[in-house]
Amino acid sequence: MSPWHNIRLLHTGANALFALALTAALVSAVWWVVHRPVFELRAVSIEAREGSELRYVSTPLLRQAVSRVSGSFFTVNLDSVRASFESVPWVRRATARRIWPNRLQVTIEEHRAVAQWGDSRLINTYGELFAANLADVEDGPPLPELSGPQGSHAAVIERWDELRRWLEPVGRQPTVVRLTQRHAWTTRLDDGTTLLLGRDQGLPIETRVRRWVDAHPRVQSRLASRAEVIDLRYPNGFAVRTAALAEPEPGKQAKQGRAVGQSKMLGQVDNANKAGAVAVGHRR
Fold first, then answer.
1. C-alpha angle 93/98/100, rounded to 5°?
2. Edge-to-edge strands of the sheet including 129-130?
């Protein structure tokens, strides 16, 4: 039988053509509506995340990001808009949403710097490294200086936070924390004192620091001047140097210092030696 005499086949073909024509008409109508001038983006509003403010984000750079936004209410690429704003210095995260019929709202979370990293980057409250102009934060309180080998910033941040807690009893704060390539720790306090902490081997660093914190008031009362270097790398005590701010060698310090017991003998610290060094530790 010829297809032209097959009523069922003709009906199926007619329905298919009708559906195709209807789809084409709908697509054309949608395209026509989407591209009406009324839906072209007229404004992009920018606001800070709730509960925060924008202190360091550059207004001219935000304007540049706005100038790159294109499309209409329906066609604008929100992921592209977000990426454009997040490329602006000091912007940690940006979100974009459409506002009917022709507006866009961008909400920005700004980095909050808590420390400076050794390669001229900054660290935010989430422990993330980010690049920004260091001159932007010069008007505020000095930021702690942290440094270490590549990929070690998380460990250095953690150690800085630990030192802040450990040093609370003596009212001191770490302003510099360094981790060397040999994984040795050094910190400088807000009064200029340097603590040589050594490596995370043997006696825990927390124990060494707390031992010094407990002895600090009595040791300091016996010194003629402020201690400049405290060497905590000894397993049985620590050494104090009041002369030059230089890293002492454990062997030399042990010879120069005077051994004093951690308990009853702790109060008998003698700082009269010429090198200005005092060793505090267990008597053997």
1. 155
2. 129-130, 122-124, 113-117, 145-147, 174-179, 185-189, 194-198, 229-231, 237-241, 277-281
- Per the listing, tokens 């001159």 go with 135
Other beta carbons within 10 angstroms of residue 193's beta carbon come to 19
d(CA 184, CA 280): 21
Q: What is the per-residue pLDDT across 42-58, written as a single tens digit (0 to 9) for each?
A: 899 999 999 899 999 99
Reported as a single tens digit per residue, the pLDDT across 102-120 is 999 999 999 999 999 997 8
Q: Which of 2-6, 68-72, 108-112 shows the highest mean pLDDT?
A: 108-112
**Superfamily of domain 115-281 in the CATH hierarchy:** Cell division protein FtsQ/DivIB (3.40.50.11690)
Fold entry, domain 39-110: Ubiquitin-like (UB roll) (3.10.20)
Residues 1, 77: Cα–Cα separation, whole Å: 54
